[in-house]
Amino acid sequence: MSQVLVEDVGRVRRITVDHPQTRNSLTDEALADLVGAAEDAERSQEIRCVVLAGSDAVFASGADVRALLQMTSADVESGPRQRLWTTFRGLQIPLVAAISGFCLGAGAELAMMSDIVVASETVRFGLPETALGLIPGAGGTQLLAHAAGKALAMDVILSGRLLNAEELMRVGVVSRVASVADYRNLAYEIAATVAERPALAQRLAMQSVRRSFEVSLSEGLAAERRDFGTAFDSPDAKEGLTAFLEKRTAQFT
Known about the structure:
The chain is of the alpha/beta class. It has twelve helices and nine strands. Helix content is 50%, strand content 15%. The strands form two sheets. Strands 1-2-3-5-7-9 form a six-stranded mixed beta sheet, with helices on both faces. The protein has a three-stranded parallel beta sheet with strand order 4-6-8, with helices on one face. Helix 1 runs parallel beside helix 4 (80-89), helix 6 (140-148) crosses helix 7 (150-159) and helix 10 packs antiparallel against helix 11.
């Protein structure tokens, strides 16, 4: 039985972790189901954006500790789970995470790998792995340091401090905060807006922003110019520019 729920609404796919027995832990099965549903959305000709969510009380509570005890070091370094994370990081469809309640460990890493993060006012975000004798293993040390800076990342990772919505907003881990009643709808509204814009421009822009965390400024600027040229040559750019001048709604293809 799948540990995620999948619903397509217009051009948006909603993927919800639904495994209350383990407080929405990202078991191997849940992660595989989630990545599979996102990959399927990326291949679709209709779906243009994905929203990731959990419950209001727990977005995702981390990895399955019982399963970790059965793994070897080779499993955790290069086994199927790490390959799933690599696949998720490489997705070329925009990802919007809607987080609420506890967002811990692998759940926090999943959120930080997303392109846009919307939080409810109740979110409690952390990377508690060192309390178990481990460290974040799906990118948490790098992603949080890039987003929030060294000092705060060290505090969260070494002390187990949990960040609230205001703190996450201030350091740029999340882009918008709403009430528990509204955060899911807000995430969907953002995703629907993203999905309606021309797909090639959205993908190139997303890739360019992601690249900025991996290359030097000069390399990033050079790549952005190339991507701008690719977008400029597209039929959608011609339509968008023409529609602007003609004061009409663009019909992107």
